[in-house]
Structures are given as structure tokens and as C-alpha cells.
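Entry 0007
Protein: TPM domain-containing protein
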Amino acid sequence: MSDFETKQIIENQFIPYFKNDDYYKGTYNGILEIIEKLK
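Output (C-alpha cells):
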């Protein structure tokens, strides 16, 4: 994965949920996206 792809996942999957104190959902969505990218 490139730095750009990693940054996109963090900005689009982790941060929006973390801002709403929904750490579980942010982490879950972020990890799923990482898994999809690595397939």
C-alpha cells in the first residue's frame, strides 16, 4: 500500500468515526478497508 492509500483510509474510515467517539466502528471499518486493499 502506498502512503496515499494509507492516508485515504485514515481520513475516510478512521477519523470520521473517531471524531464522534465511535472508536470501535472506525477501527473496524479501517481494518476492513486495509484487508480489501491487501487482497
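Curator remark: DSSP finds two helices and no strands in the chain. Residues 14 and 26 are 4 Å apart (CA to CA).
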